[in-house]
Amino acid sequence: MHSAVTAASSLESKEESKETPNKKKSATKPKWFEIKAQRLVDRDTILAVRLSHILLETEAMADTVWQKVKDQTVSFEELAASMSMCDVTRGEKGLVGWVAPSDAHLDEVVPPEVRHSVLVHAKPGDVWKTRSGRGWHLCRVEDVMFAVRPALFAKGERRRERHLGKGGVSDALRGLGGGVWGAERNEEDDGREDQLRLSFDTKESRDMGRHAVSPSPLSDPALPSAPSLPAAAVSGRPLRYLVETMGCQMNKADSERMKGQLESLGFEETEKQGEADVVVLNTCSIRDRAEQKVYSQLGPYAARKRSGEDVALVVAGCVAQQEAESLLRRVPEVDLVMGPQYANRLGDLLEHVGRGNQVVATDPAYIMEDITQARRDSDVCAWVNIIYGCNEHCTYCVVPTTRGVEQSRPSESILQEIRELGARGYREVTLLGQNIDAWGRDMNPRRRFADLLKMAAEECTKSGIHRLRFTTSHPRYMTDSVIDVVADAGPLCEFLHVPMQSGDTEVLRRMRRGYSREKCLRIVEYIKKKMPDASIGTDVIVGFPGETDEQFQNTVSLMEEVQFDAMMSAAYSPRPNTPAAEWDDQVPERVKSERLQLVTELSKKHIFDRSQRFLGRTEEVLVEGANPKIPGQVMGRTRHNRLVFFDGDVGALKGELVDVRIDTARAFHLTGSPVRVRPAEGTTERRLGVADLVGKTGDDVSCYPQSEAV
């Protein structure tokens, strides 16, 4: 039986000795960390890859084409359509489809030596060259399909029976078959370990992918369809689920993906705890308080189970990855513990739960493209993941051990998702990454985030998406070229989040951030040079181990010098498996609290002062929904990411771009009066009823063509 690999052991090559602040090597000479997903993922779990190739006659030609791919002067698809010698795939712009090493029926297209080389390079987005009897192949992995092999524990074990009472999981959940991929089941070891196996011997699997040009995480006919199972009845009602999300935007995006998985299996969402047949807690462990909140929220659900109710309890996200099997020992009522890398495999894991197991899925895995469509919480603004994980290993941060190494999504998949969102009427997209500037550096050939940002902005314009944002940047990798793209590309909003963390260079060194105070100020200077009116946000940690009063004052002086438009501040919280948690010079809680209060009050003042520049100005506001506190008002955000409230009918204005005159400017929101509503592209005439929608007279509200300047 596979045992769950702890995050620390999967990322570190040797035992870490206790680090103290007196040992400079703790910040400047970190131990070796694995940063390549290929070295962590068990290749035996790879079932197939979705492959494209360009067949060329000579190695020199392959090198020339590879350079064009690297420079992104011509797309891989265009090169395949114009230069490939392969008659079978040239018309499909190089797409072969899903390929497994044993697929002998593909020998005439991609011979065995090519298919076996895939296992070495089986990371989505990578391009490499290899030789066969047909010539030289330039291959690109579009996606990877892998078997889910979690650690399984029989639910009949005594330690669990003592706690559970009669509660279990719904009989209907036990009927889930095949998970998302419709996989065959192969039971081994008395049913305590399962593997998902796919057959590649059918004509359908051979033809898989022949009708699609590029992979799509939303709706790709090349991927096997997720089952549309009717919701099984429980006492005359369908199965229901509840997802509770804690933490960052990455968790919010993962929750949307898990909701999509559950709804593809026939579940319906509920907001009532007592109705849910499946409960998913998507957890955060960035600070100790967030971690303890998880156990508090598990309490009512565990009580339901002990009282005899059937409910499946799932703990997902960073606490799940961090605690793994130990979470089952602490809360034995939990059925499934799954790390963030399995967010789009929830259906497969629930199948194991339905067959009588407690499940722990925390092993390293490649991030697959979604086969099911995310159930997004907004129909105006959407998250688009572009990179997962983080390789930085800051001395205070648990993220690399909970979210794994960096894995960039292929640019083709990202652009396709943006295209699909535009077709569905979304008006704003936010690109997401734990360290977004690192996108592409794990790829072969390496790619630049600035280039992706430019391509994404162009795709937004083509797809009718008016706004593009991205988060979170890292000052160590934030380049002038990224700022240049933001300044020049129309859809990109004039808001940049630059998490400084501290204003003292020595503290930054011991945090292992890789930049200085001077680098932070230079970034701000260049942003203001290119975009004088841009808004800049940041993050600050106070009370880091060893932080002196003088070093803290350097953070305060940095805040005074920059005057940030937004700031997230927190007192340092020791986290498991991080060097700083073991240092001896921890700052007393009282001092941390005082420093946090000081920077919080100072940031409020700065944010209020920065808000005043909007008074009397007319700002473009994208309406996202109703003001939850004041009936008859709508809420939205400016391009500077300022929250704005104004009178209006949410049913008519949601998703609209409205010019609003700002009447009141507070620290964290603006209020104003609607001036005019921007019509749909190509509309030049005034739309009927607009004046009534916003409660103004026809003289006060007007529409104008989108091409006109504000």
From TrEMBL:
It comes from the Eukaryota. GO terms for molecular function: 4 iron, 4 sulfur cluster binding; metal ion binding; methylthiotransferase activity; peptidyl-prolyl cis-trans isomerase activity. Pfam families: Radical_SAM (PF04055), Rotamase (PF00639), TRAM (PF01938), UPF0004 (PF00919). Residues 612-676 form the TRAM domain. Residues 1-28, 175-230 are annotated as: Disordered. SUPFAM superfamilies: FKBP-like, Radical SAM enzymes. Residues 239-355 form the MTTase N-terminal domain. CDD domains: Radical_SAM. Residues 376-609 form the Radical SAM core domain. Residues 212-230 have a biased composition (Low complexity). Residues 12-22, 193-210 have a biased composition (Basic and acidic residues). GO terms for biological process: tRNA methylthiolation. PANTHER family: CDK5 REGULATORY SUBUNIT-ASSOCIATED PROTEIN 1, MITOCHONDRIAL TRNA METHYLTHIOTRANSFERASE CDK5RAP1. This is Uncharacterized protein. It comes from Chromera velia CCMP2878.
